[in-house]
Design goal:
Layout: H1 2-24, E1 35-39, H2 48-53, E2 58-65, E3 69-70, H3 74-83, E4 87-93, H4 100-110, E5 121-124, H5 137-155, E6 160-163, H6 165-171, H7 173-176, E7 180-184, E8 199-206, E9 215-220
Parallel strand pairs: 1-2, 2-4, 4-5, 5-6, 6-7, 7-8
Antiparallel strand pairs: 1-9, 2-3, 8-9
Helix pairs in contact: 4-5
Length: 222
């Protein structure tokens, strides 16, 4: 019984240490000099000056989703993060169930045409399996291209595709569309896209002094 209790204690201590490590882990600056966050209203209030002070170089801000949804804090976050000296980009969460031109109209209404901004990012995670009407895999790709062309005309910059593992497994977008990639995997560098990435969400829940809620920590491929 004592041995069993000791093993349980070791497991608890080990699990706690691993949890603490993951909550505070960031890739080294030597390997990845440029680092930043993705943030939006769901992350609560962010102290952008404090974020800059702990080493963030940039912030990608959640801006819009689908045809109608908009992050209520986008404009305030844009102004405050810019005042703190961060480079800024906008993220649209793409919905394959909704028309591409409606989604593009939503994005361009929310995100200003500003040459100072980083390339727009398109979050690709939702699958078309649950759409009210059937959407073929080929239609997902063609509609996405329509969306990209429209927002790139607005921003004047090629988009970055933020592709989840399950979206890539289903649609193989990384090979089909020639854009820079943003991949997501905590702690270990991802390779599920089959080609090099530009941005990597290296920690999906980093604990910092800049926010009460954990933040999505992102690094740039040198």
């Amino acid at each position: 019984m004592r041995l069993a209790a000791a093993l349980v204690l070791v497991a608890i201590v080990g699990g706690t240490a691993l949890w603490w490590h993951l909550r505070h882990w960031q890739p080294s600056r030597a390997a990845f000099p440029l680092q930043g966050v993705e943030a939006g209203s769901a992350d609560g209030a962010v102290d952008w000056k404090a974020l800059k002070a702990i080493g963030a170089n940039f912030a990608y801000l959640d801006a819009s989703a689908g045809s109608f949804a908009r992050d209520p804090d986008f404009t305030a976050n844009l102004d405050d993060a810019r005042a703190a000296g961060l480079q800024l980009g906008a993220v649209h969460r793409y919905d394959p169930c909704e028309p591409a031109d409606h989604q593009a109209a939503n994005f361009v209404t929310v995100v200003p045409r500003d040459a100072r901004m980083l390339p727009p990012a398109v979050d690709l995670d939702k699958l078309a399996d649950g759409c009210p009407t059937r959407v073929s895999d080929a239609s997902v790709e063609s509609e996405l291209m329509t969306f990209l062309n429209e927002i790139e005309t607005h921003t004047g910059k090629a988009s970055i595709l933020k592709i989840s593992r399950r979206f890539e497994r289903r649609y193989h977008i990384a090979a089909a569309i020639d854009r820079n990639l943003w991949l997501v995997q905590t702690r270990f560098q991802p390779d599920y896209a089959g080609r090099p990435w530009t941005l990597w969400t290296a920690n999906t829940a980093l604990s910092t002094t800049a926010s009460d809620a954990p933040l999505r920590w992102v690094v740039v491929q040198p």
